[in-house]
Design a protein that fits this description.
Number of helices: 3
Mean pLDDT: 94
Largest sheet: 3 strands, antiparallel
Structural class: alpha+beta
Strand order of the largest sheet: 1-2-5
Oligomer: single chain
Order of helices and strands: HHEEEEEH
Distance between the termini: 20 Å
Number of strands: 5
Low-confidence stretches: none
């Protein structure tokens, strides 16, 4: 990793180094995994990666918000949001 962020290229390099696949095959594996995760989420399914965490979809209803500058109430449309809940194993690792 070159910076404080893990990128697709970093993941691909890790797969390449650990499994011995070619760089193209490693990039393909990473892309397929991410594609399947995105596809499942777009189909309304939650995605759970054991030992890592769960990506959870939640539908938020319509509500009234307030413009902080003017104080005028504004309706906020219903929408679907995604949250991430880290597994206990991940939380324990981060806490160290």
């Amino acid at each position: 990793m070159h910076s404080g962020t893990l990128t697709r290229a970093d993941l691909s390099d890790i797969v390449h180094n650990r499994l011995g696949l070619s760089r193209a095959e490693s990039a393909g594996v990473v892309e397929k995994v991410l594609h399947h995760m995105c596809h499942a989420l777009s189909d309304g399914k939650n995605v759970k990666v054991s030992g890592f965490g769960t990506f959870i979809l939640r539908d938020k209803g319509e509500r009234v918000g307030r413009n902080p500058k003017t104080g005028i109430e504004v309706p906020i449309a219903p929408r679907r949001v995604m949250t991430f809940r880290a597994s206990q194993i991940m939380r324990d690792r981060i806490a160290k």
